[in-house]
Amino acid sequence: MRASQPQSIYLKDYRKPPFLIDHVDLRFELFEEQTRVHSRLQVRRNPEADGAERDLVLHGEDLELETLTLDGRPVEDAVVDSESLRISNVPDQFNLDVVTCIRPQENTRLEGLYKSSGMFCTQCEAEGFRRITYFLDRPDVMACYRTRIEADSEQYPVLLANGNPVDHGEMEGGRHQVTWEDPFPKPSYLFAMVAGDLVEKRDEFTTGSGRVVDLRMYVEPRNSDKCEHALASLKKAMQWDEEVYGREYDLDIFMIVAVDDFNMGAMENKGLNIFNSSCVLASPETATDAAYERIESIVAHEYFHNWSGNRVTCRDWFQLSLKEGFTVFRDNQFSADMGSPTVQRIDHVNMLRTAQFAEDDGPMAHPVRPESYIEIGNFYTLTVYEKGAEVVRMIHTLLGPDMFREGSDLYFARFDGRAVTTDDFVATMEEASGRDLGQFRRWYEQAGTPVLHVSDHFDAEKGVYTLSIEQSCPATPRQPHKAPFHIPLRMGLLDSTGEPLPLDDIGNTEQVLELTESRHSYRFKDLKERPVPSLLRNFSAPVKLDYAWSRDQLMFLVSHDPDGFNRWDAGQKLAIDVIQSMLEGNDTEVDERLIEAYRNLLTDTSLDRAMVARMLALPGTAYLIELTRDADVQAIHETRQRVQTTVANALREELLAVHMRNQSSEPYAFSAERVAARSLANSALSLLTLIGDEAGKDLAVEQFRDAPNMTNRFGALSALVNSPFEKERDRALEQFYVDWQDDPQVVEQWFAVQSGSPWMGGLKRVRELLEHPAFDWKNPNKIRTVIGVFAARNLVHFHEPDGSGYRFLGEQIQRLDASNPQIAAGLAQPLTRWRRYAPRLRESMKSVLEELLAEPQLSKDLFEVVSKSLQEQ
Ligand code: B3K
Ligand code: ZN
């Protein structure tokens, strides 16, 4: 047990900052052993602060204070503890000069200033700036920054910070300096600097008003041919934000830097975005289509933050979804516009339903605007990001695109340069549209996924169809009772020929029902026959929908629903029903109708291939677990596998034909059409190897050998890894490593395909990977692709009935907590769901959590996750 219990921080305790800092002048002296940081702060008392705080208290952690002067006079009586610096009785306005010493080369937490493969870089969100120098490190303190970086000219020829370069020069001792100035006031979490031996790739973008913006990407020399895609994505994002939101870029330079050791995907620092290499570097030879898609959306996401996050920022960290939910919504809209909107929606909802719903149903469940936290690093969650984005999407649905745009224009105009709340956002949307979103605000306040129970009745004599809808929401930690949500439910009705039926007098065939009460019933008149309802089209709200469709109705919707998302979803529901009734012992064989549905998909060449690839995928094991109480993972995995192999065996010929039809000899292009063809061909190939098909094996070996791009090569590797062909698999894995051992991003893929595969011998293999020379305990990507992927994807081995998978994860978490608590707390996530599983699994998961909690040195991060997971519910 930790010696002292870390304290919770509450939204209700928010107070305006007692002091403001208008200007920050920073000077970094970078050396190998240490870095000296000189900071001059222009401080003044906040006229709007509640109460008259006499003392100035600045945040600071792991800093060595060298000197401290106030208006030129040394401060003798400052009180320094492990988290702060207190100076008593300060004047109303003053300059504070602080010199601190830090050791970036020893920083394994990767927060603040640290070193990654020979370069210096920063990560300040949420509270990393206080590891660089003493500061009021909270987002509602916004300042203008001037940053001078001094370093060895040869080792660190490139010196970057936010804003525009304003000065540079040579210095004594082979050193040089570059000075940057950022004219836009910003919170400290958006501060960034980089120093390294990097190559620069340039491009430019002309804004709508005719300003030319320099686009620069900085990477290690070996990666210089992997920048094109990110730069192209950036330009698309800049263009799109002008067209769809009327947002222009504001500085003269926009920079992107790729860093190998990074705790998350990327960071939107003003004018100087820093990316995890795996989320920005790509070439056809080294990156799969999935990586290309990920890069396009993350580059856009970080760029969009320039307005939703940087120009208008968060008042406090409880408001995190103000910038994250809105920006995810924006990047989802962007991705939809760049490719197929339906496919984008399917992928997104699939993830939301599997992972965010799980979070909302577990011990860490929290509202989109949380009420308390111990460590804010634990609240960069799927709820804040993804559910937050769904909440913004619902506002968009309720207001319609035009009103929504008026609302967003007003929001950006009114709050530019300010730090605001989610409530400010909603109020602006209300003001612009005249709509009352009072009840809607509950989406920000109440945790948990609402459930809609739908039943219907058809009165054949009167021709009246009645839909009855009841909403409820389960209890979540500290929220036993929920009030009804305001839920937009997009729906339609189909007749028996598949024609959409008019729902009102004007003849609309689609409607958005607005549910606000616990119970509603809707009547549809003048119907000749009982219609088939198509509900929650395009997933119009993040809810669980419970309606008893028959398998025949689902089959019907798979081919007739005009809503592409619901066509896919009907297929998923059908497969779930088949798998679940086999699991429960009600069915012994796979329903022929499922096989027929897949046969239609494979033979109809008029269908969108990206859709077919999605529809061919059975619901994932993780989602099936989510739908089951007391989940028996082995049984779920085996049943799903049985359905998959039965379908693949029955459709062997069709799968071979699909694979053949979707080959191309053209050079790689990242176009929606080519991506779809590759994805479909690879899906077919993996189903063939899964069933041990000899022709499939030969195709996979051949594709692996001759693949002109990484998508095909990795598709073949993955097909062999998840197959009974051990000899071919081992040969391919070995060859792949030999070919790509010098490319960390490809090696990460190589790790992930093994640790995530149930075919690879589970834990034994994962332990071997930890011993592999390419594994690096300091690199989050390696940790995630071996340990994280094992726990998240290799479910059958992670949930080994003897508890070995859990104990393994517990050991790794404990080891990592000392060096990188954020990563350790993230890895603990699968254990938090222990209540979901069959009794025996549950007990062993719980005991691993208990052992972790007993650790005396537990970080705040891990303490919060583990202790909340064990709390009674
Ligand atoms: N804002 C960053 C995430 C920071 C996470 C800090 N633990 C990236 C993003 O959401 O765009
Ligand atoms: Zn973000």
Automatic annotation (TrEMBL):
Residues 230-443 form the Peptidase M1 membrane alanine aminopeptidase domain. InterPro entries: Aminopeptidase_N-like_N, Aminopeptidase_N-like_N_sf, PepN_Ig-like_sf, Peptidase_M1, Peptidase_M1_dom, Peptidase_M1_pepN, Peptidase_M1_pepN_C, Peptidase_M1_pepN_C_sf. One of its GO terms (molecular function) is zinc ion binding. It catalyses: Release of an N-terminal amino acid, Xaa-|-Yaa- from a peptide, amide or arylamide. Xaa is preferably Ala, but may be most amino acids including Pro (slow action). When a terminal hydrophobic residue is followed by a prolyl residue, the two may be released as an intact Xaa-Pro dipeptide. This is Aminopeptidase N. Its EC number is 3.4.11.2. One of its GO terms (biological process) is proteolysis. Its cofactor is Zn(2+).
